[in-house]
Amino acid sequence: MSMELYGRRSSINVQKVLWCLAELGLIEGHDFQRIDAGLQFGVVNTPEFLALNPNGLVPTLVDGDVVLWESNTIVRYLASLRGEGALLPVNPAARAEVERWMDWQLGTLWATLRVAFLGLTRVPEAERNYDAIRISHRETARLLRIADDALCNRQFLAQRRFTVADIGVALAAVRWFDLAEQFADVFEVYAELPFLKDWLGRVTDRPAYRTAMGR
């Protein structure tokens, strides 16, 4: 078992990799070893870890002589290495469609939602900037309507099958809905996102999602 994945299971970026691994049929403890790292687990500031990932962040993947960081890069690597193009198409145009959603999730969707998510889950209540949190959550609703519109006439975000495009967006959407439910007194009522909710229910019902979440 030469593959090692550094990162705590609760991290959205680690969850991306774990979900991808599970979709590819790779089993934790058999095909790869996961090493808790980050937040309460530490590790990321040690000289040994920084030699692997100078950013001191998770996830970090070690596959023999290959050392990778950045969640989308790791997911692309794994999906290209295995699965015969099922999760990440080989055709350039089809692959670009998938990667567009991956990059949108990381650079636009999560970058917007992150303010509300961290503000409500990491910052003590007395120190929270509720104006920034509300703006973040509201702007994320606007972005999620883009995905809702895209899903009005298709089952998945890209292609006609589940791909890695669905993984990151789903994980961010789960967090958005969870915040809206847990902090209902903080946020306004938004318009329904029926196609997004239907898609989210289907993709999070996949066995690989439950495996990634440790359920």
Walk me through the structure:
With 215 residues, this protein is of the alpha+beta class. The chain has two domains: 79 residues, 3-Layer(aba) Sandwich (Glutaredoxin); 118 residues, Glutathione S-transferase Yfyf (Class Pi), Chain A, domain 2. 53% of the residues lie in helices and 7% in strands. It has eight helices and four strands, in the order E-H-E-H-E-E-H-H-H-H-H-H. It has a four-stranded mixed β-sheet with strand order 2-1-3-4, covered by helices on one side. Helix 1 packs parallel to helix 3, helix 1 packs across helix 6 and helix 5 crosses helix 7.
Q: End-to-end distance, in Å?
A: 23 Å
Give the helix/strand class.
Answer: alpha+beta
**CATH top-level class of the largest domain:** Mainly Alpha
**CATH fold-level label of the largest domain:** Glutathione S-transferase Yfyf (Class Pi), Chain A, domain 2
Total strand count, please?
Answer: 4
Question: In the CATH classification, which architecture of the largest domain applies?
Answer: Up-down Bundle
Task: Calculate Rg over CA atoms.
Answer: 17 Å
Report low-confidence residues grouped into runs of 5 or more: none
- Strand fraction band? 5-15%
Widest beta sheet: strand line-up: 2-1-3-4
> What would the principal axes of the Cα set say about the shape?
globular
Q: How many domains comprise the coordinates? A: 2
The run of helices and strands is: EHEHEEHHHHHH
Helix content: 40-55%
The chain-level mean pLDDT equals 96
Total DSSP helices: 8
Biggest sheet overview: 4 strands, mixed
